[in-house]
């Protein structure tokens, strides 16, 4: 791109340089003057590529480290590794807590997504379409779970659950219901954000066209609006699921014996052992999320929404 | 099939008046175009007919039925949107069949009518495609078929050609017009493009600032513009200030006396004359002067000066041996026109609005 130039700017400079070079006897300085503009453009491109590479390296380094260390054949990670092994994967598989935690997390994340996405979608619709007072305030409240540190929210929920248990005289903490309710909080901001964005980009003329063709409002919604929002809703479900599945801090105080999420189980394991088993579990999770993203991307182009 | 009547339809947004007491009567099978610059209220008027905007005052009557307070789905209109507004997740056939489905037409009958509509717009081969797999022109034909298939009482076109490239525009415009005539569709169309409106419509409604300035055939508007706005908006027009001096003499402010059409109704204001009605000839004794001549292939434009007044004239490019071909900037020329070609019209302020009588559209 930097080589072929039709514009007058660089051309003139080059020609000037050439003239100067002809006029003066060939000096070592003349050659760089001739290559001047081309070189700076090339250097700029190089710097840009280096910056891009660096950014990707910083983003991917932790992930790569986790995956690599999961195969190291020693308990305390040192470089270079003594050898490569898959025994940490076998160990992880053997830990009953991880298997149970995985199932619990899966259960909670699925339920929270199934409840949170419809709620968030409804909220997004109201925020974008209806004229409601205090729209900005409601929007902020719905997005708040993303802004408040999860450990703070978790503590608050913990205290609230204890109070509620007293009043209602029933178990909430460490029940499936209590955990799902807490995780719905995580899914709503994602859904509101993504569906709001989808709604903003939706061509309302299509809805008008449907109405013009005789569709009543409910039919317009189910036949036109919802299908057109599908990419946003699918993305919202994906991100809700992942955010809930990998959440540690919010669930930390709300889990109990016999009902522990995978991240909390991993933290408990870390209290007594410091071997790459956790790296193996994390690698399995990374793999799961990647597959989930790739499969989703097959149906809706995530890059177009997020 | 039906008629459309707008009776004093207005739309106000607080203090702002978007549409101001529009009266319009469209006969069965007629194509009427709302023409005006953006913001003139033409689209608002169309949307009030479709039912997307509720009028502040007035009535919308379709086929004798007052639909002013009815929601869009209960009105019998078929609208083609500027953006086409196809349903992106449905095939071409499902798009076209949607209106029939809403009308609970049985499957077999629906398929038959969809196929027929797609044949009408020559898209029968693409019935299974998704809208995004079609070109702009094809998408537009799907939108046409989708609106036509339900046989609406009134057919509504919102800037139907604006999203097509210039080459397709004239062709598609003719095609729509042909279809509209063949099916006898009562049609209201919105456009800001005067060529489009002149080529397609039986009658045109020129709007500005929410008001109807003139209603008439293409010839009415071009030959007998009601005011300077219409004269300037429909075709090009020289507007020369001055006052009538005799039955067929107009005295320009700059002093020159020029011929004009005798018309007792218009005592003063501006003299409107179309560029192509002006004859230009080299004449050493001529009162005019050629400032510039622009060769445009088939036609030539002359930028003239008549006693300080700038005038544009257009003629088919003269043959090579014509003396006009040898004109140079600064040359004296004779500028002539027949009196009937120059009409004295009032300026376009609101008080002087004089719509052509509704009941006699064709003269």
What tags apply to this protein structure?
heterodimer; A: 306 residues; mainly alpha; MetI-like fold; 2 domains; 13 helices; 77% helix; disordered N terminus; B: 363 residues; alpha+beta; Rossmann fold; 6-stranded mixed beta sheet; 5-stranded antiparallel beta sheet; 23% helix; 32% strand; disordered C terminus
How would you summarize this macromolecular structure in one to three sentences?
The complex is a heterodimer of chains A (306) and B (363). Helix content of chain A is 77%, strand content 0%.
What does this structure look like?
The complex is a heterodimer of chains A (306) and B (363). Chain A has helices at 8-23, 30-69, 87-94, 96-129, 135-147, 150-168, 176-200, 204-212, 217-245, 249-252, 262-272, 277-299, 302-305. Chain A is mainly α and 306 residues long. Chain A has two domains: 8-69, no CATH class; 89-305, Orthogonal Bundle (MetI-like fold), CATH 1.10.3720. In chain A, helix 2 (30-69) crosses helix 12, helix 3 packs across helix 12 and helix 8 runs antiparallel to helix 9. Chain A is globular. The model of chain A is unreliable at 1-33 (pLDDT under 50). Chain B has 363 residues and is of the alpha+beta class. Chain B has two domains: 4-225, 3-Layer(aba) Sandwich (Rossmann fold), CATH 3.40.50.300; 237-345, no CATH class. Chain B contains eight helices and 20 strands. In chain B, strands 6-7-8-3-9-10 form a six-stranded mixed sheet, with helices on both faces. Chain B has a five-stranded antiparallel sheet with strand order 13-12-11-14-20. The longest helix of chain B has 18 residues, at 166-183. In chain B, 40% of the residues are buried. Residues 350-363 of chain B have low confidence and may be disordered. The interface between A and B is medium-sized, with 18 and 25 residues. Chain B: Pfam families: ABC_tran (PF00005), TOBE_2 (PF08402). Chain B: Its main location: membrane. Chain B: It is a peripheral membrane protein.
């Amino acid at each position: 791109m930097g080589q072929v130039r039709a514009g007058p700017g660089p051309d003139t400079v080059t020609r000037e340089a050439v003239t100067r070079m002809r006029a003066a006897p060939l000096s070592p300085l003349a050659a760089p003057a001739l290559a001047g503009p081309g070189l700076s453009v090339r250097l700029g491109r190089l710097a840009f590529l280096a910056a891009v590479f660096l950014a990707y390296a910083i983003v991917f380094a932790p992930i790569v480290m986790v995956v690599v260390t999961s195969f190291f054949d020693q308990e305390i990670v040192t470089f270079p590794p003594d050898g490569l092994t898959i025994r940490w994967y076998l160990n992880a598989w053997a830990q009953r807590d991880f298997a149970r935690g995985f199932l619990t997390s899966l259960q909670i994340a699925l339920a929270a997504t199934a409840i949170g996405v419809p709620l968030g979608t409804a909220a997004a619709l109201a925020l974008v379409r209806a004229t409601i007072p205090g729209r900005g305030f409601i929007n902020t409240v719905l997005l708040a779970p993303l802004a408040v540190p999860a450990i703070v929210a978790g503590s608050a929920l913990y205290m609230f659950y204890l109070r509620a248990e007293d009043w209602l005289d029933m178990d909430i903490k460490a029940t499936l219901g209590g955990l799902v309710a807490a995780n719905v909080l995580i899914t709503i901001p994602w859904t509101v954000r993504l569906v709001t964005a989808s709604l903003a980009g939706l061509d309302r003329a299509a809805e008008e066209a449907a109405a013009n063709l005789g569709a009543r409002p409910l039919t317009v919604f189910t036949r036109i609006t919802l299908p057109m929002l599908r990419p946003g809703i699918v993305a919202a479900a994906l991100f809700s699921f992942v955010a809930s599945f990998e959440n540690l801090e919010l669930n930390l105080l709300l889990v109990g014996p016999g009902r522990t999420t995978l991240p909390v189980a991993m933290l408990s394991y870390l209290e007594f052992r410091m071997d790459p088993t956790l790296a193996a579990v994390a690698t399995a999770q990374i793999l799961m999320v990647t597959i989930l993203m790739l499969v989703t991307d097959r149906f809706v182009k995530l890059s177009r929404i997020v | 099939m039906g008629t459309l009547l707008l009776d004093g339809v207005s739309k106000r947004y607080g203090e702002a008046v978007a549409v101001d007491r529009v009266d319009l009567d469209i006969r069965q099978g007629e194509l009427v175009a709302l023409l005006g610059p953006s913001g003139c209220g033409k689209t608002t008027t169309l949307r009030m007919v479709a039912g997307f905007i509720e009028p502040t005052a007035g009535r919308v009557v379709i086929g004798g039925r007052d639909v002013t307070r009815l929601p869009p789905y209960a009105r019998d209109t078929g609208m083609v949107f500027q953006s086409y507004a196809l349903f992106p997740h449905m095939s071409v056939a499902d798009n076209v069949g949607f209106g029939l489905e809403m009308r609970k037409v049985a499957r077999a009958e629906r398929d038959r009518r969809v196929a027929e509509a797609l044949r009408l717009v020559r898209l029968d081969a693409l019935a299974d495609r998704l809208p995004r797999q079609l070109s702009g022109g094809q998408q537009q034909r799907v939108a046409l078929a989708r609106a036509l298939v339900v046989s609406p009482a009134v057919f509504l076109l919102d800037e139907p050609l604006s999203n097509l490239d210039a080459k397709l525009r004239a062709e598609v415009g003719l095609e729509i017009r042909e279809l509209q005539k063949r099916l006898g569709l009562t049609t209201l169309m919105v456009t800001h493009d005067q060529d489009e409106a002149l080529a397609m419509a039986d009658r045109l409604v020129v709007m500005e600032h929410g008001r109807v300035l003139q209603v008439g055939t293409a010839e009415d508007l071009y030959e007998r513009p009601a005011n300077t706005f219409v004269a300037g908006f429909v075709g090009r027009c020289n507007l020369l200030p001055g006052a009538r001096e005799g039955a067929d003499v107009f005295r320009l402010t700059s002093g020159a006396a020029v011929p004009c059409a005798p018309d007792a109704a218009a005592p003063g204001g501006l003299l409107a004359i179309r560029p192509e009605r002006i004859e230009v000839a080299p004449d050493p004794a001529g009162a005019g002067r050629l400032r510039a001549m622009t060769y445009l292939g088939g036609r030539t434009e002359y930028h003239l000066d008549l006693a300080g007044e700038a005038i544009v004239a257009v003629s088919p490019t003269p043959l090579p041996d014509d003396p006009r071909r040898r004109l140079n900037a600064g040359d004296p020329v004779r500028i002539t026109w027949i009196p009937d070609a120059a009409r004295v019209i009032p300026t376009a302020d609101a008080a002087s609005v004089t719509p052509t009588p509704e009941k006699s559209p064709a003269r």
